Amino acid sequence: MRRLRVTLPILAAALLCAVLVAQEAVDLSVVQRIKSEAFDNSRVMDHVFRLADVYGPRLTGSPGFKAAAEWAAKQLQEWGCVNVKLEKWGPFGRSWSLVRYSGNFVEPQPAPITGVVLPWTPGTNGRITAEAVYAPISMTNVQEFERGIQEYKGKLRDKIVLMQAPPTIAMQTSPAARRLTEEELNRPFEPPVRRSPLDDLLPRPGRGGAGGPPPAGPPAAGRSLQARATQFLKDEGALMVLIPGGRPEWGVIVSGPGGSRDVKEPIPLPTVAIFAEQYNRIARLIAQKIPVRLEFEIETKFYDDDLDSVNVIAEIPGGRKRDEVVMLGAHLDSWTGGTGAADNAAGCAVMMEAMRILKALNLPLDRTVRIALWSAEEQGLLGSRAYVKEHFADPEDMKPKPEHAKLSAYFNLDNGSGKIRGVYLQGNEMVRPIFEAWLAPFKEMGATTLQIRNTSGTDHLSFDAVGLPGFQFIQDPLEYGTRTHHANLDTYERVQMADLMQASAIVATFAYHAANRPELLPRKPMPKPKAAPKKQP
Fold first, then answer.
1. Residue 529 region, left (φ>0) first, then alpha (ψ -120 to 50), else beta?
2. Which residue range is the domain that position 236 belongs to?
3. Radius of gyration of the chain from Cα atoms?
4. How far apart are CA 210 and CA 207, in angstroms?
């Protein structure tokens, strides 16, 4: 009897969940039609080809981004979507593109240098040949920064400068690509640990005292030191900067911004991220006092004529509840090392394919289904945040606008090209039985998991921040964290067609059922307005 008392609550919860799932209508005949269209007539890789091979990379505001946005809008319109537009928001800031790059060792032996020119850095004004010098200057510790400035003053004129320490490159024994295991998918939820106020009295690393080294400086110290370093290098007459390309263990170059999109910020020296192996070779040669001469020719362009950006918006109009909306979205912009295939042409291609499937099958929809392809996600979800603020609510005051009550859900895809394995519920337990029912027809395709925990870093957060049901799909990582994310290997070859076909079928199914269920999806309580930042004394 004791064992029975322990298991009865679990059994009751399971029965309740089963009843709720049974109550959620799923049109299996429509699901079958969606699967057939998604797998037998797929166009998803055609979309990836256009977005990555033809228009990539797609830094927000660049010619590649603008061309991709115009193509996507035209394609959606050709499929029969309405209210297609490039919706402006801003200001974003100046944009940038690379025109040409070449890099070579001249001495001690000729060899090509594989590199990625960092966005918002200038060109070299023709070909330059110069000696490389190793001048590590800390960007995190004020005292070390000052020592570095004094040590290298007068030594950098007409030099190519290596400012970072050579990274350690370890032999890798794990595979570069992987799929999520059942254990990973079903690991128990661990709530965030809330620290006691008494913990603030204890010394901690980086806070001084016995817990660690003295603090590196105020929160803005890094930005301030970077600006000072930029000016120092210019004043000293250095020619350009080299940095190791990050994630060195995989032989790839991971890159981000080298300058600022803000027109008020100074333009730094030309900056190139190169293979860590090549960076380390240069550093070793310099350490042995063997001269290293390098040759570079870089041409870049800045665009200051229009500081605004756009999101691509299109709709399939609904029927009797057409003023209510289900949204699908992914970010269209990318970094510039590769062509932005996995991050995030893949997500855009799936969302576009879901819209194509719904139109191709001419499925009846009670609610309007709207797609949004966002700009400036890579700079902090800026495009989706601007859209949410304009249409739904401002997180600063949390005063909902009329459209806020009309959005049923927003579904996002932005973790590479891996197949969908489930959905992050973003703390919304009320949607669990609904999503369980919608995922059930895809169990044999590996989509089985609903995780209550949040996930970060994607555009669904802009919706969740103002109390709207925003969700990111769980995906197999594949090579996302090793070879593709923000890397020069983020190309068409790293995208898996079968996975995107599966994802397209699931997204189209979710859109269809969300558009036709009797009620809007349930919501969490409206968050409190963001606290105004405290003024510094």
1. beta
2. 95-169+208-303
3. 26
4. 9
Q: Where are the beta strands (DSSP E) in 320-387?
A: 321-331, 367-374
321: domain CATH number?
Answer: 3.40.630.10
User: What's the chain's length in residues?
Assistant: 537
Sign, Cα dihedral of 417, 421, 426, 431:
positive
CATH of residue 99's domain is 3.50.30.30
Alpha-carbon torsion (171, 177, 183, 188), positive or negative: positive
Instruction: Establish if 197 belongs to a structural domain.
Output: no
Residues 162 and 237 in one domain: yes
Per DSSP, the three-state class of 358 is: helix
Question: Using an 8 Å Cβ cutoff, are 342 and 335 in contact?
Answer: no
pLDDT given for residue 121 in this prediction: 98
Q: Has residue 521 been placed in a domain? A: no
Contact 330, 347 (CB under 8 A): yes
d(CA 198, CA 292): 55
**Cross-strand bridge partners of residue 100:** 299
Contacts of 244 (CB under 8 A, 6+ apart): 164, 166, 167, 273, 274, 275, 276, 279, 280
Place of tokens 């998918």: 185
293 and 328, same domain (yes or no): no
Question: Taking a C-beta distance cutoff of 8 angstroms, is the pair 436, 17 a contact?
Answer: yes
**Closest CA relative to residue 330, chosen from 414, 437, 397, 204:** 414
Q: Is residue 522 part of a domain?
A: no
The answer to whether residue 177 is domain-embedded is no
Instruction: Determine the pLDDT at residue 441.
Output: 98
**Do 358 and 461 reside in the same domain of the chain?**
yes
For the entire predicted model, the pTM comes to 0.90
- pLDDT tens across 233-276, in order? 999 999 999 999 977 667 899 989 999 999 999 999 999 999 99
pLDDT value for 208: 34
Q: How far apart are CA 380 and CA 459, in angstroms?
A: 9
